[in-house]
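Bug #77: duplicate submission created two jobs. Keeping one. Sequence:
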Amino acid sequence: IEDSTIPKTEAVRAERYKYIRYTEYEFEQLYYLKSDPGETINLAGDNKHKRTLDSLRKLCDKLVEEVKAEQ
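Kept job's structure:
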């Protein structure tokens, strides 16, 4: 669905984390779903979660490329 009022996103969910990035902006979100199921505490800027953030970025990149290859 094309809607200019909805920002374009790419996202991946792992067992404990959810990663979202806004493709038209330099903005990312990372949530630890076990303790924050309502997704209210964005951990993307927290250096304690840098390894998880980097890992989910790479996984998201991989999945986006796989989808593009199938089109």
